[in-house]
Backbone:
């Protein structure tokens, strides 16, 4: 989707218009030619590389636990592969980074079990950002909560503050990181909603992996756009936010339990 | 006395000239730049880049991190794609590598690579043929 960079000398206005028209055409074509239900968000929602993210968009995910298959860890594997995290050691170490985990719920009276992925919930009012002493923990305009590792001093206060245990600390020296996902010893990290993919107009790796596995339990989209599939489903079905009592308004919602 | 002074000055001049001629090639970092990989010129003038590359990188860093601006002209990945060694595809390793060579010579700590990948993934010539186009990756293909 991104254009070559050789036209940087043109005025920003001209570049914007050209790209917007191009993207508009792509989105219209996608709508016409691809059947409903196929992931066309990438084409419809990408932004030009030189344009900052906007608060008109709020990225979020809707996770349907009734579709999430027991024992399937495709979302976890896809996340680790995309972000260059080594898969959990056997036996698992307490210091392994964990950006996403599968959680199993069991109703003790009926023995009904359900499993669902839990990751950073990308809160509107993130406690990790509130407590960060350096400003490393921050929320992007489009609602994605990130750690700026250039500023993080590794104090781990955010890990204490997060009610979802979503963050990990890198304890050991790392090598051969993914070029799109810099990671290093001494910093806190967590799910970035695959920000490097979202900025290109792609879905997060976990959502794509779930669709590829045929479960379609993770729906990614713009919560602020009333025409997006995620906004329509949230408006029409009962969904829950984890620990809604904390009034953090997470961007990740769950349904099916 | 006058002859002695002239003699000493002559010896000094000769030794300075000899030192200058023999040590000139060994002054400065020994960086190997492969022009077949990097092309003829950097994204800005060489003199400007020598003095200001860190400012460009620092600016781009905050733009990308906080605003999601992902232009490639001043990105660290773009630096690596041209300046990585043809031997092992890296920008650090020994003093012949582009980043390390200069930074060792100037005695400036280089800590980008504790988090950022110091290796260019595919060689630039191979990028166009091996990387799938973004539209193809929408289908959920893992990297």
Residues:
């Amino acid at each position: 989707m991104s254009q070559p960079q050789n036209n940087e000398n043109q005025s920003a206005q001209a570049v914007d218009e050209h790209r917007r028209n191009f993207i508009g055409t792509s989105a219209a074509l996608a709508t016409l030619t691809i059947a409903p239900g196929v992931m066309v968000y990438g084409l419809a929602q990408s932004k030009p590389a030189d344009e900052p993210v906007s608060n008109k968009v709020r990225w979020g995910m809707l996770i349907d636990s009734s579709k999430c298959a027991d024992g399937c860890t495709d979302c976890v594997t896809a996340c680790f592969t995309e972000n260059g995290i080594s898969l959990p050691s056997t036996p698992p170490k307490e210091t392994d980074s964990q950006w996403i985990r599968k959680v199993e719920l069991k109703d003790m009276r009926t023995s009904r079990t359900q499993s669902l992925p839990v990751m950073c919930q990308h809160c509107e009012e993130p406690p990790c950002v509130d407590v960060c002493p350096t400003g490393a923990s921050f929320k992007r305009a489009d609602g994605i909560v990130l750690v700026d590792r250039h500023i993080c001093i590794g104090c781990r206060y955010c890990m204490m503050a997060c009610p979802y245990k979503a963050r990990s600390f890198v304890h050991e020296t790392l090598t051969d990181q993914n070029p799109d996902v810099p990671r290093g010893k001494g910093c806190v990290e967590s799910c970035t909603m695959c920000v490097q993919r979202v900025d290109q107009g792609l879905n997060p790796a976990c959502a794509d992996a779930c669709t590829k596995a045929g479960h379609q339990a993770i729906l990614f989209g713009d919560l602020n756009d009333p025409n997006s599939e995620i906004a329509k489903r949230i408006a029409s079905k009962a969904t829950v936010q984890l620990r809604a009592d904390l009034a953090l308004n997470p961007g990740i919602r769950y349904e099916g339990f | 006395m006058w002859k002695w002074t002239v003699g000493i000055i002559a010896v000094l001049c000769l030794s300075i000239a000899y030192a200058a001629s023999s040590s000139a090639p060994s002054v400065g970092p020994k960086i190997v730049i492969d022009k077949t990989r990097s092309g003829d010129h950097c994204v800005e003038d060489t003199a400007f880049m020598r003095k200001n590359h860190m400012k460009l990188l620092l600016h781009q860093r905050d733009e990308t991190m906080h605003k999601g601006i992902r232009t490639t002209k001043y990105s660290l990945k773009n630096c690596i794609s041209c300046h990585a060694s043809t031997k092992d595809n890296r920008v650090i390793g020994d003093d012949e590598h582009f980043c390390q060579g200069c930074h060792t010579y100037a005695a400036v700590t280089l800590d980008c690579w504790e988090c950022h990948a110091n290796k260019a993934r595919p060689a630039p010539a191979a990028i166009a043929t091996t990387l799938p186009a973004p539209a193809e990756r929408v289908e959920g293909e893992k990297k």
